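Ticket #182: bound-state structure for iron/sulfur cluster.
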Amino acid sequence: MSAPTTARDYFQNIWDSLYTTYAGMKVTGKYLMQKPITVQYPDERLPIPDRYRGIHYLEQEKCINCLACARACPIDCIEMDAIRHGKELEWVLFTLDYQKCMFCELCVYPCPKDCIHMGTEFAFVSYDRSEFNHDLLSYRGMSREARIRKREADIKKAEKEAVKALKAAAAAEAAGNEGGEG
Ligand code: SF4
Ligand code: SF4
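RESOLUTION: The complex was predicted; output attached.
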């Protein structure tokens, strides 16, 4: 606003002040009655698309320790270790290092059991870098179901061996009897 030099300028300045105040308040008034759109993160979160590449999660029960995901990772983020008991697995380790991970999703596609996924969680904050080597296991050792299956398989195996031993003993006895008769 320029300093008024004439009466016309003086009234023009008054008009400009009133008009610009009105224009500004019109915008304010338009939003005054609307619901606020600010999201109060972290108490509130915007919906995340299904294909978002966030922190991984593992459906451990389905995993067969085939290493396909670890081999597909271009920067060797994934480490895993499990002891095999027949068909069952005793889990020792399954970690993913987020100090290196670039969220490329290449580890997800080759999984034959569709059990490693990129989730929608993204907040991963720590003062300790070692915590970024994230443990994806939900349990260590064998699952309860796997233990039951293993016990059943062991019982079946023991039964088969017992039957086999009995048959062998019966065959040996029959052979002995034949030898005695001859
Ligand atoms: S998202 Fe990419 S970088 Fe991260 S673990 Fe999977 S393959 Fe490796
Ligand atoms: S590719 Fe799938 S099944 Fe194989 S070790 Fe990785 S997560 Fe498990």
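RESOLUTION NOTES: Residues 63-69, 111-113, 115-116 surround iron/sulfur cluster (ligand 2) (CB under 6 Å).
TICKET STATUS: resolved
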